[in-house]
Amino acid sequence: MSARQVAESVLDPELPVLTLADLGVLREVSEDGGRVVVTITPTYSGCPALDEMRADLHTKLTEAGYADVEIRTALRPAWTTDWISEDGLRKLADHGIAPPQRIGPRAVGPIPLNLAPPVRRVACPRCGSARTTELSRFGSTACKALRRCEDCREPFEQIKEF
Amino acid sequence: MTVERVELSAELAGGEGRAGSADVAEYALWLGDDALILSQQLGAWIARAPELEEDVALANIALDLLGQARMLLTRAGEIQGTDEDTLAYLRDAAEFRNVRLAEIDCGPGPGGDFGTTIARLLVFSTWRLALLDALTGSADPVLAAVAAKGVKEVAYHRDHAAQWALRLAGGTEFSRSRMIAGLDKVWPLTDELFTPHPVELRLAGVAVDPSTLRSEVDSVLDTVLGAADLARPDVPQSPGAGRDGVHTDELGPLLAEMQQVARALPGAVW
Questions:
Q1: Residues near A132 by Cβ (< 8 Å), separated by ≥ 6?
Q2: CB contact under 8 A, B153 and A111
Q3: Domain count of the fold of chain A
Q4: What is the CATH number of the domain that holds A11?
Q5: d(CA B62, CA B84)
Q6: Does residue A28 sit within a domain?
Q7: Phi and psi for A97 in degrees, rounded to 5?
Q8: Closest in A45, A115, A140 to B153, CB measured
Q9: B225 in contact with A at a CB cutoff of 8 Å?
Q10: Which domain holds residue A137?
Q11: CA-based nearest distance B199→chain A, Å
């Protein structure tokens, strides 16, 4: 396997249904002679999974026979949920985590203040109902919000738009 | 488990701001200290917030700020020839450069309550968001990159605080009184946020002159206060300047707790 294929197959430690490539944090893989340089970007500034991702990439590439591996972290451009692949969105939904909607580039001007949770039609990953409400913008990891379905009454997680 | 060093090489590679100056280090330290100290304060709420979801929310906000602090202290440390841990754990209160709004005790405990904490988070996040947004255009590659990530995070923090302010102000008479008391407590520390310092003025193009943020911050706070039917507090401003190391008495106990393990066991890893 090429170094890129190996790096692309490494799973996200906090959302192990996604690969780092699905999540959009894998920015670049370069192979020059025996030397491999992988560049990843953190999702959130404080994401504690970043160290795990670095370690996992290093381990998998070493196991695949690449002896000289460097993992770099780049902050810019800042990660956005728009970088989650179509495959990634589908895998999230299949595993009961509502995927984020596409948000596009930020509009010019001041950042809008939301005095109420923004109204988004997020389908319940369990029963499909569109009648769901946000319980908390902050969930079990930095990238998730907590929602509840008003029909089946089950709580569920959503990757919040970022 | 081990926590790896924050690595900023990709931001610095080939960047003209690579070397940085003593002023850039000082400025990165300021913004890092703001985030680090508020992160520590918010962490005190974990398992003590009014509901489980709020424990999680405040912990997440604290984690975002801690991440921003680590990158900023790393940047300061690279220029000063030290590292993030030394800066976080081995400086005394007078060496910290955070604004005093970040350090005051807003609870839990005798220093305040959830209303005070929300009032502080509202003012702090509104100000920091405006600051980071302006900083995305900085000539310093690390400051610009940290700001671009931070803007997205702090926008969520500000929304969270604003939505709670409305909920508390529009709840019971008691919750409303706590929100008003909280704003009265934090408001005397607002002028400090907008007072330019010679370091910021020397760093034109790199740092943000905080006096330029006032109208945007005022307008957002007025929107929230208006929606909550709350008046702008009419309280005198408290003199002092965290940027010069002139702090309240509340920073010392916070540092004692934050630094005790690192100071008791120098060089310890786990």
A1: A98, A122, A123, A124, A147, A148, A149, A150, A156
A2: no
A3: 2
A4: 3.30.300.130
A5: 17
A6: yes
A7: -110, 120
A8: A45
A9: no
A10: 96-101+117-162
A11: 25
State the angle between helix axes of B52-80 and B114-135 in degrees (0 to 180), rounded to the nearest 10: 40
Contact A74 B10 (CB under 8 A): yes
Other Cβ atoms less than 10 A from the Cβ of B221: the count is: 22
How far apart, in whole angstroms, are the C-alpha atoms of residue B92 and residue B191?
25
pLDDT at A159: 95
* CB contact B84 to A (< 8 Å): no
Are A4 and A31 in contact by the 8 Å Cβ rule? The answer is yes
CB contact under 8 A, A44 and B227: no
Chain B hits for A109, Cβ within 8 Å = none
In a domain, A111, yes or no: no
B135 dihedral zone (left: phi>0; alpha: psi -120 to 50; beta): alpha
Beta strands at A144-149 and A155-159: parallel, antiparallel or unpaired: antiparallel
Q: Is the ipTM of this complex over 0.90?
A: yes
Among B133, B149, B229, the strongest candidate for a mutation testing the A interface, having the largest count of A CBs within 10 A, is B149
| Cα A42 to Cα B68: distance, rounded to the nearest angstrom | 12
B46 touches B2 (CB < 8 A): no
Are B216 and A146 a contacting pair at CB < 8 A?
Answer: no
Residue A82 lies in a domain: no
Q: Is B210 left (phi over 0), alpha (psi -120 to 50) or beta?
A: alpha
Distance (Å) from the alpha carbon of A36 to chain B's nearest alpha carbon: 15
Look-up of token digits 């701001």: B17
CB within 8 Å: A138 and B160: yes
Judge: A75–B68 Cβ closer than 8 Å, yes or no.
no
The span from the CA of B43 to the CA of B55, in Å, is 9
* Model pLDDT for residues B174-231, shown as the tens digit of each residue: 999 999 999 999 999 999 999 999 999 999 999 999 999 999 999 999 999 999 999 9
- A80 found inside a domain: no
Confidence of residue A113 (pLDDT cuts 50, 70, 90): very high
